[in-house]
Amino acid sequence: MTVESGRHSARLVTLAFVRSGTDVLLLRHPDASDRFRGLWNGVGGHVEPGEGIRAAARRELREETGLDVEGLRLCGVIHESGLLGHAHVLFVFVGEAPGRELQPRQGLEVAWQPIERLGELPLVDDVAELLPRLWTVREPLFATEAYDGADRPQWIRFEEDGDAAVASRRARA
Questions:
Q1: Beta bridge pairs of residue 88
Q2: Closest alpha carbon to 131 in 115, 109, 145
Q3: For 66-102, what is each residue's pLDDT tens digit?
Q4: Are 130 and 92 contacting, i.e. CB atoms less than 8 angstroms apart?
Q5: Calculated CA dihedral for residues 140, 18, 15, 76, nearest 10 degrees
Q6: Contact (CB, 8 A) for 54 and 47
Q7: By the 8 A CB rule, do 104 and 25 touch?
Q8: Phi-psi region of 136 (alpha: psi -120 to 50; beta: other; left: phi over 0)
């Protein structure tokens, strides 16, 4: 496949936030990671060629946490640009855990975190803005997000009724 000169192309990525009661499952990016070092996020990864989007989200959850979560619900689509110099289309899912026992892949830190205490954690910047919206949407939300070429967000726009509204944020120090 060739990409026309000047045309935009993006990588397909999934991100899942799984709940168990009043807790949410989060993954902490290792300190040696090329992005979001030491920060907590949902669980996700790249969609493989020919793989369905929801199937990719379930596979990533199984590989990274040991959980097989049926019934993942698409709650958002975010078009990111500039993250590590690339563009991504991020499919965001929520689901309920079938149990709490975790079997993380070696070298990964995953943990159940109380939802009411998320403000005390070092989170990936957009998670604090995204999570409250995900739990309440009836239809998937749509957003665009710009990064600085590394992993620091510049802004995120959530679309409401087809109109974009800018939600400002401050970048990590």
A1: 11, 80
A2: 115
A3: 999 999 999 999 999 988 888 999 999 999 999 999 9
A4: yes
A5: 10
A6: no
A7: no
A8: alpha
Q: What are phi and psi of 111, to 5 degrees?
A: -155, 150
Do the Cβ atoms of 84 and 152 come closer than 8 Å? no
Burial 122-143 (b: 16+ CB within 10 A, else e): ebbbbbebbbeebeeeeeebeb
* The two structure tokens encoding residue 130: 């995204």
Task: Give the pLDDT confidence of 8-54 residue by residue, as tens digits.
Answer: 789 999 999 999 999 999 999 888 877 888 999 999 999 999 999 99
Return the SS3 of 155: strand
The domain made up of 11-167 has a fold known as Nucleoside Triphosphate Pyrophosphohydrolase (3.90.79)
Q: Compute the distance between CA of residue 7 and CA of residue 25 in angstroms, rounded to an integer.
A: 37
Partner residues linked to 158 by β-bridges? 143, 165
State the SS3 of 99-152: CCCCCCCCCCEEEEEEHHHHHHCCECCCHHHHHHHHCCCCCCEEEEEEECCCCC
Domain boundaries along the sequence of the chain: 11-167
Structure tokens at 89: 């289309």
